[in-house]
Design brief:
Bound molecules: ligand T4K
CATH class of the largest domain: Alpha Beta
Structural class: alpha/beta
Number of strands: 15
CATH superfamily of the largest domain: Type I PLP-dependent aspartate aminotransferase-like (Major domain)
CATH architecture of the largest domain: 3-Layer(aba) Sandwich
Shape: globular
Strand content: 5-15%
CATH topology of the largest domain: Aspartate Aminotransferase, domain 2
Length: about 400
C-alpha cells in the first residue's frame, strides 16, 4: 500500500473511535417503547420501576444477590469505599483509568500503587502482598479490557490479611471466571455503563454484592443518606440512576450475545491481519473464562516495529483512526498522584513498560473485512516505511 501519510485525504472520511457505541435498530426501538412507558408513568428517577427491573436483570446475569444501580462507575466506587468505611491504605494498580484512583482519594484513603502482571494486565497478588501493612484496609483488582485479573490470587490475599476485596469491573460486563460470572467474587464489584462501554446506558454504573447489609447501605448512600422520609442516617450523595438510563439498559440486554460475537469476530480479523507484522502483539482475551471482547488492545515494540507507538498513533489519527493509549502514562504519573506518591514509579516496572507500548484501536466497526483491513494495511505501511513515518510525525508535532 502507498503510505497514506503522503496523501492529503484521510483513509476514512469520518473518525473511527475506540468505544464508539453501535446501537442496534431493535435496541433503539425497544428503548423508545420503554421511554413511552416512562412518560406515561411520569416517574423519571429516584429508584423507579425501570431501575429496579434493570437491577434484577443485572444481578441475575452476574451471579450476584444484589445490584445497586447508580449514575456512573466513579460514584459507584466512591460509594463502596464509603459504605465499607475504607479510609486508610488501599492497594490498586496504577495501570487503570484515573477514576479508580480518584475514588480512593475522594474517600480520603491513601492510594498505594502496585504493579501488574504482563499477561492479564491485572494487579499482581504477590507484589500486592509486599505492600500490605497494618494500615492496609482493601485491595482493588481491576478487570481491564474484558480480561479478568487474578481473582483467585487476590481472594486468597484478602482472606489471609483480612482486608476487603473490591473489583473494578468497568470493562467486564457479562464476563466469567471459569464457569462463574464476575458477581460471585469479592466484597463488591463495580460495573460501568458509560456510553463507550460494551453495555451502555448513556451514563451509568452499578455495584454487585452478595452482602445484604452493604447493599442496603449503598441504597441509602446513593439517595443522600435518606432512611425513609424526613430522616437522614449518614452522609450520602445523589448517585441515582435515571429511568431513561435504565430503559436504555433494559433495551440493550437482549443484544449482548450478538455484540460479543460481533466484537470477537472483529478482533479475529485484526489478529489475523496483524500477525506477522514485526513488533506488534495483540492482547489475548478470554483465557480461563469468558470475555465480552470490548477492546482491541495491541502493543508496539519500537525496536522491532521500526517506529514508536506514539508515531504510529499519530499516523493513525491523521487517517481518522482515533486510536487511544489506554492507560498511558499510568495514574502515578498524573496529578495529584505524581505529587502525593512520588516514589511509586520505583516499583511499577511492568506498568511503565506496558503503558509505553499499549494502543487501543477502534473495534466496534461495520464491514470489518474491509475497514479493519484498511487499518491493518496502514500499520503495515508504517512498519515498512519507518523513516518516512517518523519524519512525518516529527513535522506534525
Ligand atoms: N474504571 C475503569 C477501569 C474505567 O475504564 C472507567 C471508565 C471507570 C472506572 C469509570 O467509569 P465511569 O465513571 O465513566 O462510568 C472514556 C470513558 O468516559 C470512561 O467511562 C472510560 N472508563 C474510559 C476508558 O474511556 P475518555 O476520557 O477516554 O473519554 P472520551 O471522551 O475521550 O471518549 C472515548 C472515546 O469514545 C473517544 O474516542 C470518542 C468515543 N465516544 C465517546 C462518547 C462519549 C463516542 O464514540 N461516543 C460517545 O458518546 O474516557
Amino acid at each position: 500500500m502507498e503510505l497514506a501519510i503522503f496523501s492529503e485525504r484521510p483513509a476514512f472520511e469520518k473518525p473511527l473511535y475506540v468505544g464508539s457505541p453501535v446501537i442496534e435498530e431493535d435496541v433503539k426501538e425497544k428503548y423508545f417503547q420503554y421511554m413511552s412507558e416512562v412518560f406515561n408513568r411520569n416517574w423519571f428517577t429516584n429508584n423507579g420501576p425501570m431501575v429496579q427491573r434493570l437491577e434484577a436483570e443485572i444481578a441475575k446475569l452476574h451471579g450476584a444477590k444484589y445490584c445497586v444501580a447508580v449514575c456512573n462507575a466513579t460514584i459507584a466506587e466512591i460509594l463502596v469505599l464509603k459504605a465499607l468505611e475504607l479510609s486508610k491504605e488501599i492497594i490498586l494498580p496504577s495501570f487503570t483509568f484515573i477514576a479508580t484512583a480518584h475514588a480512593c482519594l475522594w474517600q480520603g484513603a491513601k492510594t498505594v500503587f502496585c504493579d501488574i502482571s504482563p499477561d492479564r494486565l491485572g494487579l499482581d497478588p504477590a507484589k500486592a502482598e509486599e505492600l500490605i501493612n497494618n494500615e492496609t484496609c482493601a485491595v482493588i483488582g481491576v478487570h481491564l479490557f474484558g480480561n479478568l485479573c487474578d481473582i483467585e490470587g487476590l481472594t486468597r490475599l484478602s482472606k489471609k490479611h483480612n482486608i476487603k476485596l473490591i473489583f473494578d469491573a468497568a470493562h467486564a460486563f457479562n464476563c466469567y471466571h471459569g464457569d462463574k460470572p464476575i458477581g460471585c467474587f469479592g466484597d463488591a464489584v463495580i460495573l460501568s455503563f458509560h456510553a463507550t462501554k460494551f453495555f451502555g446506558t448513556f451514563e451509568g454504573g452499578a455495584i454487585l454484592t452478595n452482602d445484604p447489609k452493604l447493599a442496603e447501605r449503598l441504597r441509602f448512600l446513593r439517595n443522600f443518606g435518606f432512611r425513609g422520609y424526613d430522616n437522614v442516617g449518614f452522609l450520602g450523595i445523589n448517585g441515582k440512576m435515571s429511568e431513561s438510563s435504565a430503559a436504555m439498559g433494559l433495551a440493550s440486554i437482549p443484544a449482548i450475545g450478538h455484540r460479543s460475537a460481533m466484537l470477537k469476530n472483529n478482533l479475529e480479523v485484526y489478529r489475523k491481519g496483524l500477525s506477522g507484522i514485526p513488533g506488534v502483539d495483540v492482547l489475548q482475551v478470554g483465557k480461563g473464562g469468558r470475555s465480552n471482547y470490548q477492546y482491541m488492545v495491541m502493543f508496539v515494540d519500537e525496536i522491532k516495529f521500526g517506529v514508536s507507538r506514539d508515531v504510529l498513533c499519530k499516523v493513525l489519527w491523521k487517517e481518522n483512526i482515533i486510536a487511544r493509549k489506554y492507560f498511558y502514562p499510568g495514574c502515578h504519573n498524573m496529578e495529584p498522584y505524581r505529587t502525593i506518591c512520588p516514589d511509586a514509579d520505583k516499583r511499577l516496572g511492568v506498568t511503565d513498560q506496558v503503558s509505553n507500548k499499549v494502543l487501543c484501536l477502534p473495534l466496534n466497526l461495520e464491514r470489518p473485512e474491509k475497514n479493519i483491513n484498511i487499518i491493518v494495511s496502514i500499520i503495515k505501511a508504517v512498519n515498512e516505511n519507518p523513516k518516512e513515518a517518523s519524519e512525518w510525525a516529527r513535522l506534525h508535532l
